[in-house]
HTH araC/xylS-type domain-containing protein (Pseudarcicella hirudinis), 289 residues
Amino acid sequence: MKWITRERPKIDRLACPWLIRKFVDNDAEFIYVPYDQVQEEAKRLNAIPFDIPDVEFTHYDDQCTFDYIVKKYKITDPAVLVMAVIVRGADTDRHDLAKESAGLQAISAGLSYNHTDDYRLLETGMLIYDALYSWAAHLQKQNHLQNSPFENLLHEVYKKFLEESANDRKKIPGWVKNLKEIIQDQIDTQLTFDLKTISHDLELNPSYLSREFSKYFEDLNFGEYIRKIRIDKAIKLIQNTSCSLTEIAYLTGFSDQSHFTRIFKKHTGKNPSAYRKNLQKSKPGTKSK
């Protein structure tokens, strides 16, 4: 089976070939071409396009192509599931997802810089992901310093130093207050959230904002925080209005009621209709039927 994507791979376009060969098709062939030629060459070569917009094998919501392949082929290997989070964090510049993501991004950028031949880069990348898989399967709980008391002591001293300076590092930047106001305005007016647009308004780099966001917003990434406050608003509407659930889904920015129901249940443990029924039962003078 042939697979095709855009040239100059760095993370997802190296991780996905590794995953496909190891768990989907041992004989898979991978082709790299300029971005504007991917779709045309895919048809000509009868190849499967991946990691580009408007194809099946691509990013969905906050997840990357590697995640989609794991779900598509129902890969349940525990080590692969660990790797998926690392790859997602590196590929989407969300290093808060896994501490290894920053390292993977650095290594991937360095590989791409050192190798101008995409197929040589793929060959080297395969070795990197073999190593990452072995770490995830056998070594992730092993501490590098555990067999060196002296180095471990230095590590503890450094850790204490970091803790003592935590207050300085946790000073809240001015953009955090501005961002909270922007989010509240958009929640109240049902505008579409666009991290790049918001970054531009705040005069911040989108990658920086994505990376720093969770530090000041309840340890949640941008998408998770937005969903949380939308659900908080939905709860208030259920408690204080007679709006239908369809209306509430619209008023809180969800594209359809099924998506609203799924996210609501994830946050509260109940679907919206059950939540409303329990609320009505608990009100004085209301008899359950």
